[in-house]
Design brief:
Helix 4 packs parallel to helix 6. The chain has eleven helices and 24 strands. It has two domains: about 220 residues, PmbA/TldD fold (2-Layer Sandwich), CATH 3.30.2290.10; about 230 residues, no CATH class. Strands 1, 2, 3, 4, 5, 6 and 7 form a seven-stranded mixed sheet that branches. The chain has a six-stranded mixed sheet with strand order 11-10-9-14-23-20.
């Protein structure tokens, strides 16, 4: 495919970006001892972007053959010319930058490709059975396994010519518990970029059935927290959610230009000096991060980017166009979900660097607060204001971990919360690799970090 795309690109008088993308998606879902879904989908095609007279044109084809691709090239060029004539906002010349030229096969790709469908389905059935059997109070259990095989080839007329093949498996379990008419649902999920071994050796996958069932039963008797501004220790799962939703989106350069809270703050202190926040296409500090990829959909290598360094905002996330506008190097954040989508500025693996304090030391030095874990639904906006749910809130009194409390909401302004951080743990975990990020189109991402101690508002029983 790379040779075909290079041959077509070599004949173009305009700047072209050609992207072949093939995705294979397998899914198995089991509940109440029954296989509720077993599906297989394949989608493939070529997306073409052309830059002519300062305007982008885009076209795509689901037929990855020479004639169809050349026709898409002509359509993209004509669209760009039409937009330029219509006075579309002029795109600045793309900056010269390092472009990918290697072919990459991700770890675990061949392993999962060789594993039979029967083995994958059997494991899903076993997970559902084990969750149900873990406690007599669990009346229903569910398990789900998905995997996505991705193959991409990127060719540009200014030198990118590279391909990769990656696989991203996920597993999740749910336990439904009941007592005296009260019901609780507890869920845990794990997603990685890697193979079978990588998935089931992830810290969150170890004993996932027993842990999920036990937590559901414990939550049946758990009280609510006392609401108000509290000292909290955020687990890596909550740190990841905060980092991605409430910080990461505000520093995507297209949203910065649209007026996000990060606009104009480069060089300013926005967090505690203990906080260094990054986004990377690689799996830093631990293996298997779910948003890993060697280069983005513009052919730019996905380097590690420091967004906040020692509390100061030092970079936004860029594609080639926004990098030209800001006069900086592209960061490898141009990503498209389908071959028929144009690349947008998206995160990859977003995280806070680990510190030097252990979790044990952090708890021991906390007089009164909560340890929060297991994030649930929430929202954040371009101002950095957020509201999330935490499924588990463990009381801390006089340096000791106490009883479990029911789901609690946490809210605040993200940069203010990061400004209150007074301890960062040495432990680190990727914890947001399942599911997808949405921003007009989907993207596979991950987020995580260490444990953080900070202050924020908890919603619960007032008193």
């Amino acid at each position: 495919m790379k040779d075909l795309l290079q041959s077509i690109a070599s004949m173009s008088p305009a700047f072209l970006e050609l992207r072949y993308h093939r995705r294979v998606h397998n899914l198995f879902s089991v509940q109440k001892g029954r296989v509720e879904e077993a599906s297989h989908r394949t989608r493939a095609g070529v997306g073409v972007r052309a830059l002519v007279d300062g305007a982008w044109g885009f076209a795509s084809t689901s037929t990855p053959e020479r004639a169809a691709i050349r026709n898409a090239v002509e359509q993209a060029i004509e669209s760009a010319r039409a937009l330029a004539r219509a006075g579309a906002r002029k795109v600045e010349p793309l900056p010269a930058t390092e472009l990918a030229s290697a072919d990459h096969v991700g770890e675990g790709y061949e392993e999962l490709l060789a594993l039979s469908i029967g083995d994958k389905l059997s494991r899903t059935v076993e997970l559902e059975k084990a969750t149900l059997a873990a406690s007599s109070r669990v009346h229903t259990a569910a398990a789900r396994y998905t995997e996505v095989f991705e193959e991409k080839t990127i060719v540009t007329t200014d030198g990118a010519a590279a391909s990769y093949r990656l696989v991203r498996p996920e597993v999740s379990v749910r336990a439904f518990a009941e007592k005296d008419g009260s019901q609780v649902v507890c869920a845990n999920a794990v997603g990685v970029t890697g193979g079978w071994q990588c998935l089931f050796h992830h810290p969150n996958a170890v004993a996932i059935t027993e842990r999920t069932a036990a937590r559901a039963v414990e939550l049946l008797d758990a009280p609510h927290v006392q609401g108000g501004v509290k000292t909290v220790i955020l687990a890596p799962s909550i740190v990841g959610l905060l980092t991605h939703e409430a910080i990461g989106h505000t520093v995507e350069a297209d949203l910065v230009l649209a007026g996000s809270v990060a606009n104009g703050k480069i060089g300013e202190r926005v967090a505690s000096e203990l906080v260094t926040l990054c986004d990377s296409g690689h799996s830093e500090h631990a293996v298997g991060a779910g948003g890993s990829l060697p280069f983005d959909d513009e052919g730019v290598p996905t380097r590690r980017v420091e967004i906040i360094r020692d509390g100061r905002l030092v970079s936004y996330l860029h594609n080639r166009e926004s990098a030209a506008h800001f006069g900086v190097a592209p960061t490898g954040n141009g990503r498209a979900w389908e071959y028929s989508d144009e690349p947008l500025i998206r995160m990859r693996n977003t995280y806070i660097e680990p510190g030097t304090t252990t979790l044990e030391e952090m708890i021991a030095s906390t007089e009164d607060g909560y340890l929060l874990d297991n994030p649930s639904s929430g929202q954040a906006d371009s101002t950095g204001e957020f509201m999330f749910g935490a499924g588990e809130a463990w009381e801390i009194k006089n340096g000791k971990l106490g009883k479990l409390h029911r789901e609690v909401t946490l809210s605040g302004m993200a940069f203010e919360v990061l400004g209150s951080v007074d301890a960062v743990s040495s432990e680190f975990r990727w914890d947001l690799g399942s599911g997808h990020c949405g921003k007009g189109q989907l993207a596979k991402v991950d987020a995580g970090g260490p444990y953080l101690r900070c202050k924020l508002m908890l919603g619960g029983v007032q008193g």
